[in-house]
């Protein structure tokens, strides 16, 4: 699978959320906050796990 195929798959996954976000900006903001919060949680968790193991 090439980069072009990955971009097409990403486009198919993200496009419906962008349509919802244009109609309901508050819903899109909440969804982004949840996604970024989860990413931040994983980053902080992995940072503390690597610190605890050393």
Task: Show the helix and strand layout.
Elements: H1 3-23, H2 25-53
Helix pairs in contact: 1-2
Structure description:
The protein has 54 residues and is mostly helical. The chain is built from 2 helices and no strands. The longest helix has 29 residues, at 25-53.
- What do the pLDDT scores average to? 81
Task: Report low-confidence residues grouped into runs of 5 or more.
Answer: none
Using the alpha-carbon principal axes, give the shape. flat
Q: Which range does the strand content fall in?
A: under 5%
Helix/strand-derived category reads mainly alpha
The largest sheet, given as strand count, sense and whether it forms a barrel, is: none
Number of helix segments? 2
What is the end-to-end distance?
A: 37 Å
DSSP helix fraction: over 70%
Radius of gyration: 16 Å
Total strand count, please?
0
Instruction: Give the H and E element order.
Output: HH
Summary tags:
single chain; 54 residues; mainly alpha
Quick rundown:
This protein is an all-alpha fold and 54 residues long.
């Amino acid at each position: 699978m090439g980069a072009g195929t990955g971009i097409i798959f990403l486009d198919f996954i993200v496009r419906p959320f962008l349509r919802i976000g244009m109609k309901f900006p508050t819903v899109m903001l909440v969804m982004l906050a949840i996604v970024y919060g989860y990413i931040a949680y994983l980053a902080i968790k992995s940072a503390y796990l690597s610190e605890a193991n050393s």
